[in-house]
Amino acid sequence: MLSFIKTRTPEIVKKLIKNSLQITHYTGLRFLSYFLFPFRGYQSPLRGHYISTKDLISDINGDYILLDNSEYINYLSYKKNYLNKSNESDKIDSDSCFISPETFVAVIPNGRVIYDYGVVVSPNHRLVGDVSINLGGDSSKHGVMFDSYLPPVQNIQGSLAVLSSTAHQRYFHWMFDVLPRFELLKRSQISIDTYLINCEKSFQRESIQILGIPKEKIINPQSNTHIQSEQLIVPSLPGKISYMTRSSCNFLRSIFLNEPYDFEINRYLYITRGDALTRRVLNEDEVLIELTKYGFESITLEATPIVEQAKLFASAKIIVAPHGAALTNIVFCQKNSLVIEFMPDTYIEPCFERLADLLSLRYKCLKAKTIGKTFTNSVEKTHDHYVDVSELNLLIQKYLN
Q1: Rounded to a whole number, what is the distance in angstroms from the first to the last CA of the chain?
Q2: What pTM does this model have?
Q3: Are 125 and 33 in contact (CB under 8 A)?
Q4: Which of 61, 163, 170, 307 would give a disulfide with 197, using CB separation of 3.0 to 4.6 Å?
């Protein structure tokens, strides 16, 4: 017991000190804002936060347009009902079930939006938490709550729709967190004068063109963006980060994939991450030799338009790939297609398993041994890994037989 206390106490103390400093910092900025606001106005620290948009709307003369009620989603339903699985790994847990929150579009008079990832701020200078999600934290720990000085405000007339969201530069989050907000706007039938949406990357620009948003109506937010609009139009996020919804999947298929299809579903695809900086397959040559026996094609998607990626995945019977953004495209796969995902044992993220189950795909996670640096201090984890080729071979044979 003494040995346990000696080894664990320093980390516990560090955590307590960190939490205490964070609370002190947070409280101090709220106190400081009270005194600074009369002088610095909207450039002073935020006064606090609303957990939900509905709480804000009840305080102001705004509008809350409810589109869908909350929905219970069991990501293991297909695995249970169609694949007849009943082992321990398939038990229902917090990662397998999800209550998708209700979807809505809010109209916030004189609302504001900050930064390049669409942080929504109320007219009374508070963060609106449920439409300003940051990765891995709740509203009170949002980065903007710890900013002591906000950028100067730009005022614009008319209605400004906020589509940008956290991690917009990542393909997965762009597809599942940003784009589905456009569908909510369309369903609300609100007239939009200007859209706040990111357009630096090619997949962003392609999406915007397909959605039919005119260039002259776009504001591309930057790190120093701080805009107040006569009417800030804010669609809800489609769900929780990394927990997809059926409506989001259907929307993405509708805009990037023309159905019915005029091609066969018979391709075997291996998606390489050889040009990535993390989660690379160290024995990829060995993997490719084995996959070639079955007729697999090795594909790099980096410069491929989304529409072409959609067609590629829609025609695939089997997808094999290391964990990465490319697997976002399994949203375009057909029912019963097989997805084999390499997952480094130092990096476990089940988002694509959830997506596969939502779409009635067959899914297998092949755990891979991480090789190389996995330090947490000062060194970025690469999670490069070694795949057991014999295990991969067994998975493919089982599916084909």
Answers
A1: 54
A2: 0.88
A3: yes
A4: 163
